[in-house]
Design brief:
Number of helices: 7
Strand content: 5-15%
Helix content: 40-55%
Shape: elongated
Largest sheet: 3 strands, antiparallel
CATH architecture of one domain: 2-Layer Sandwich
Radius of gyration: 21 Å
Order of helices and strands: HEHEHHEHHH
CATH class of one domain: Alpha Beta
Length: 137
């Protein structure tokens, strides 16, 4: 019994030591990013239309998800899209959107908005399995 208690305490210390290692980033300072090609836009433009997306901090994601905004997917995309800047006034002028949300609706298909928004959520750790059960033998 005493040996099990020591093993658990040793495991706790080992885990703390692992979490203190410098290669583990502070996710508030180093949010994950990824690049995604939008197939339809790439075909139309004749070149890769690549969007650079970044994960959002926990508080921002929760606030958006709980906002009740019917355009929550677009809001997540607007917050998580690093490049292109979907809030750029030139895009607003080109597509005639009164707001960035309206501009995105006029520029991207519903499925493209959903796919890009989901990728932002995946970068935040949502919509994918991030943990697995450890079986003690």
């Amino acid at each position: 019994m005493e040996e099990r208690k020591e093993n658990r305490e040793e495991t706790k210390m080992d885990m703390v030591s692992l979490l203190l290692r410098p290669e583990l980033p502070n996710v508030l300072k180093e949010l994950p990013t990824a690049r995604f090609k939008v197939t339809r836009l790439s075909q139309i433009l004749g070149t890769d239309a690549v969007f650079t997306l970044r994960g959002l901090p926990y508080g921002k994601v929760q606030k958006l998800r709980q906002s009740g905004d019917p355009d929550v997917q677009i809001q997540i995309l607007l917050q998580g899209c690093v490049d292109p800047d979907l809030k750029d006034p030139a895009l607003k002028e080109r597509f005639g959107g009164a707001t960035p949300v309206e501009t995105v609706k006029r520029m991207l298909l519903a499925g493209e908005i959903e796919d890009l928004s989901r990728e932002v959520e995946r970068l935040c750790g949502f919509r994918r399995s991030t943990i697995e059960e450890v079986k003690n033998g």
